[in-house]
Structure formats: C-alpha cells, structure tokens
Amino acid sequence: MMNQKEKPQFQIVSLQVPTGIEITDTSILGNWQINGTMKNLNDDVEVDFMPGGRISIFYETNLLAENLIESFRLNERSSTFLLNNMTTAPSTVLEKGPLSEANRDVYSEGVLKFALQLNLKYAYISPKKMKMEKMRISCNNMKVQFRHGPKDRGELIEPEKIDWDVGPGAALKANWETKMEVKNTNHRSSVVIKHVETTLMYRSVALDMSSKDNVEVQKESTVHIMDGFSFPSTRKSYNMEWVVTEIAKDRKRGEIMFDLNIEVQVMIKSRVLIKIDKLRLYCESITLNFKNISSNIPTWDGSNLECKSGL
Fold first, then answer.
1. Which of 36, 161, 228, 252 is deepest in the core (most CB within 10 A)?
2. Cα angle vertex 99, ends 140, 244, to 5°?
3. Gap between the terminal Cα atoms of the chain
4. Whole-number pLDDT of residue 124
5. Among 135, 156, 159, 158, which Cα is nearest to 147's?
6. Triad 86, 39, 170: Cα angle to 5°
7. What is the C-alpha to C-alpha distance for residues 116 and 98, in angstroms, rounded to an integer?
8. Strand-by-strand arrangement of the 255-269 sheet
9. 80-105 burial string, b = 16+ CB within 10 Å, else e?
10. What are the b/e assignments for 112-149, b being 16+ CB within 10 Å?
C-alpha cells in the first residue's frame, strides 16, 4: 500500500490568442496557445502521465477547442512545461445567447472570460509499487484581453483571479436509459431508419450521444428504440464543473429537466418508390422528479412526450 502522495501541481504561465478571434453567427473562431507547468512535489516517487490526457477550452459552458496531451514522466521533485495549441473545430456550434454576450463584451470591454479544463490519468511510480490516479483540473474565470477589438492579439490578464478547482474526476456519475416509440402509419410503405443519432441535452449542453443503424419499421407497425447514456461521457466534452454544479442545484430543488435531440436518416420503401429523407426531432422538457430525498433514483410521471420536428 502506497502512502498518501502530493498531487501533481499545474500552473498557467501564459494564455494567448495570437491572431484574435472571429465571432460568427454560429461560433467563436480562434487559436489558443497554452503554456503551463506541471510539477511533481514528491521526493520518493516519479509521476507517469498516461496517453489519452485531454485539454479543453470553453466559453461559458460551450466547448470551443480541445486537444490531446501526450504522455510524459516527471522525476522526483521535478517539473516540465506543457505547451498546447488548440483551434476551434469547424463543426463547433454555439447557442445564440452566448454569442451575443461575447460580441457585446469584446467590443464594450475588450475582455472575454474563458475556462480551461485538463483531464489526466497518471501513476505514482516507486521501485516496488505503482498507484493509478485520475485528476481533473478546472481553471475558470480566465480573462483574456483584446485591446483593440477581437481581431487584435488576446492575452491573459489578472492570472491571480483565476478560479481553480482540482479534483479526482466528476463528482457526479449517472446512467440514463430511453425507450422511444416509432410508428409507421403507412399501409403501403415500410420505413428503414438507416441511421439515428440521439443526443442527451442539459440546458443546451450535449452530455452524451447514442446511435443506431438499420432499424426497419414494417407497414402499419411500431418499433421501440432503446438508447443508453452516461455521465461523465467519453464521447462528448463540456465544462464538467459547471454541469455538475447546476445538476446538483436542480437535484436539491427536486427536479432535473433534460432534452433529447434526434437526427434521423430514413428510407421509405414501396413497390414503386424508394425515397431517402432526413429528419431532426426535439423531445423537450423531460422532467425527472427527485421529491423522495431518501432515494437517488428519480421518478417520471410516464407521460408520453411527442417529439417536435425542426430544421
């Protein structure tokens, strides 16, 4: 059994946005350069950081960019620089509210607040023992100043006011299961769901996703599609600290509300016609009740919510 060890210590040296940012109708485009240090404060063990570490940059709860952290090792009482370069992915889409706020703040104050998150797996290593650990580091309230507008170089200011949170991982773990009923009311055509992707949402944050392929619904029949979701998810990235805090508040109030976003590619088949179409569906305000404070298992009133179609 290995004695309690000091956790690795991360410190931000600088954060720069060298080419400024572009706030579009759907995203905040930019390139973030992070320079930090990681220290091993222990005298008797090395710290080996495993492959698969991840660093992410957020605006409010919205993921802007992320990157992998390569494996590295720290000897006893040693440190190293962590340099990372992240660029907004072309597929990144933000809600209109945060985009409006960012556009207002960058022009009126010249400052935007970002959050940085690191998720790492590492091992304490001594000649005879090894102990695996996980660590999540959240750096919130990181003020980046653009002195002459968004196209100007952005630099971190007031690093002493960064809100730090270091923990072993998410304080919340949960699993969801959904059962959706799909009806084909046609008496001449069958429907094949070529691909369906379902995303579990909490306050516009995508928590997890699930997908199915090639589900056939015969004429005038019904099928059920089962999906499973988990938190934390390996398939989605988000500001975990914010999500955990807000879900905990809702849990205390007795209700947590979720949405499902569903994207479907369907093929309609008849004797004379094959038609392929795409649908986007929204199942909103699915409320789980935690009124029974002695139980961690919520109740649902069982009401069947019909999903709405959208663009």
1. 36
2. 40
3. 57
4. 95
5. 156
6. 65
7. 17
8. 205-217, 190-202, 255-269, 274-289, 308-310
9. eebebebebeeebebeeeebeebeee
10. bebbbbbbbbbbbbeeeeeeeeebbbbbbebbbbbeee
Find the radius of gyration of the CA atoms of the chain: 23
Host H or E run for residue 247: helix 240-253
At 209-263, the pLDDT tens digits run: 999 999 999 988 999 988 889 887 877 777 777 788 788 778 777 788 899 999 9
The owner of tokens 């579009």 is 24
pLDDT level of residue 311 (50, 70, 90 thresholds): low
CA–CA distances in Å: residue 69 to residues 1, 180, 296:
29, 38, 35
pTM greater than 0.85: no
Indicate whether 301 pLDDT > 70: no
Residue 231 CA, distance from chain mean position: 10
| Cα dist from 191 to 75, 212, 260, 270, 274, whole Å | 61, 15, 22, 9, 10
Q: Tens of pLDDT along 82-115?
A: 999 999 988 888 878 889 999 999 999 999 999 9
Cα–Cα distance, 120 to 137 (Å, whole number): 8
Calpha distance 26→103 (Å, rounded) = 12
Amino acid at 72: F
Distance CA 250, CA 277 (A): 38
